[in-house]
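Sample pair:
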Amino acid sequence: MTKSTQNDPNRGQAAMKTPPVVSPQAWQAAREQMLVKEKAQTHARDALAAERRRMPWMAVEKAYEFEGPKGKASLLELFEGRRQLIVYRAFFEPGVFGWPDHACRGCSLGADQVGQLAHLNARDTTLVYASRAPQADIARLKTRMGWEMPWYTITDSFDADFGVDEWHGHNVFIRDGDKVFRTYFINNRGDEAMGTVWSYLDLTALGRQETWEDSPEGYPQTAPYKWWNWHDAYNLDAAPDAKWVEISTAGEAAFRKVGDQAKK
């Protein structure tokens, strides 16, 4: 009996040249070989983030003004009292494909990836989006798409001054009291990885703020895992939950044991 190709989605396409099918033992060996390279990449990413934390800062001397849900807001006010700020320039304005119903497809795909902001906020970091669309249109878009990040209207030369007038990008800032400094910037394919708490924190001047990181002296750091919480249960003034500390410490010990055995 011959197989019908009438409903075959690959009908008419060249056959895929797939990898070999191997035994479980051979597959595990191949996976372990790949894992060596993946760990090297992870360590290289950590080293790059450590170098990023030592980048020079640029003072922001100009007073920028945005429009928000509650009216006018300065760049300093976008921090919402936190120490660090990440501003993503999203294209939603007249002339953008999709207007007025949608923002740029690429920026929208990125917005769909943004996780719970409570975890970033727990590390003294605020994420906001900024566009040239009026606030009424931004509010309508956020409701339609289910997005919850703060989203401001650019009213001056902020986009041109920070390299995002003709393309998307993330600008990262830190404040010392009322003084604001630009610490980093990514755009193009650098934006692809954004969306998780880790990808955002690795861009910042303070990093993940965990004790294992290679950071300059005096940078805020706490033990890894211990500060984690459910996104609706953060209390920034509370000590880490004792039970969670016990569980996470046991988990760390187990991971170290597995790692030590793998090195033998």
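DSSP finds eight helices and eight strands in the chain.
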